[in-house]
Write a structure and sequence with these properties.
By secondary structure, this protein is of the alpha/beta class. The protein has helices at about 5-15, 25-35, 45-50, 60-75, 95-105, 120-130, 145, 155-175, 185-195, 215-220, 230-235, 240-250; strands spanning about 20-25, 40-45, 80-85, 110, 135-140, 175-180, 200, 210-215. Strand 6, helix 9 and strand 7 form a beta-alpha-beta unit. Helix 6 (about 120-130) runs parallel beside helix 8 and helix 8 packs parallel to helix 9. Keywords: Cytoplasm, Magnesium, Metal-binding, Methyltransferase, Pantothenate biosynthesis, Transferase. Belongs to the PanB family.
Length: about 260
């Protein structure tokens, strides 16, 4: 099987073909997801909540992400893997280089960092050193204590324009993908149309270039799932069919629908 690359994802955007991605944390699920046709997976710091039982992503370490990246890589050798840089693991250039090197050596194809234009210099330095970077704007879970909870972002014009400005600045600095979380559908569309790089939405409406879900949300495991989540397992009765349905509905634009989106 041919490995999935950034060039493949860029081509999908050019062809206006939507694609589905998902979080993965171990070899077994990674293999199952790849088998059903998901070619991009995120080893997310969401594992702090889904696997470790914490109430936020903040306790997750670089070593935690590296361990799970190795597991996912073993199960999905040809998939494109994005690994989260955890809280305070990229606060300085030196930290960023060390954290990124650890994750890339563990099997990541790309690292993901949360934040706006203040990260532009970090993005530039990492990409100059052969580390592909995915940005993350909107609701950034590592900033939960600044936001005062998990709240929809960009609902007024001022904050929406600031988010768009940040997205364009990050693209200019060198990010090659952007995750956009918990923003109104119209803003998701606006950002996706403004950027040349693929934009992957999670709670950002169905007009972004791709979608991502935490696997526990997609399979109905989460006790109190977010508004944007959909239990695909409930509709199908088995995991493989659930993942195929998720892919089909993302590619057709049926998911996320109005019930899973923000105005």
């Amino acid at each position: 099987m041919k490995p999935t690359t950034l060039a493949d994802l860029s081509q999908l955007k050019k062809e206006k073909r939507k694609f589905a991605t998902i979080t993965a944390y171990d070899a077994s699920f990674a293999h199952l997801f790849a088998e059903q046709g998901i070619n991009v997976m995120l080893i997310g710091d969401s594992l702090g909540m889904t696997l470790q039982g914490f109430d936020s992503t903040l306790p997750v370490t670089v070593e935690d992400i590296a361990y799970h990246t190795r597991c996912v890589r073993a199960g999905a050798p040809h998939s494109f893997l994005i690994s989260d840089m955890p809280f305070m693991s990229y606060a300085t250039p030196e930290q960023s280089f060390s954290s990124a090197a650890t994750l890339m050596r563990s099997g990541a194809n790309m690292i993901k960092i949360e934040g706006g234009s203040w990260l532009c210099e970090t993005v530039k330095m990492l990409t100059e050193r052969a580390v592909p970077v995915c940005g993350h704007l909107g609701l950034t879970p590592q900033s939960v204590n600044i936001f005062g909870g998990y709240k929809v972002q960009g609902r007024d014009e001022t904050s929406a324009q600031q988010l768009l400005n940040d997205a364009m600045a990050l693209e200019k600095a060198g990010i090659q993908l952007l995750v956009l979380e918990c923003v109104p559908t119209a803003l998701g569309q606006r950002v996706s149309e403004a950027l040349e790089i693929p934009v992957i939405g999670i709670g950002a409406g169905n007009l972004t270039d791709g979608q991502i879900l935490v696997m526990h949300d997609a399979l109905g495991i989460t006790a109190r799932p977010p508004k944007f989540a959909k239990d695909f397992l409930k509709e199908t009765g088995n995991i493989r069919d659930a993942i195929r349905l998720y892919i089909e509905q993302v590619e057709s634009g049926a998911y996320p629908g109005q019930a899973h989106s923000f105005k």
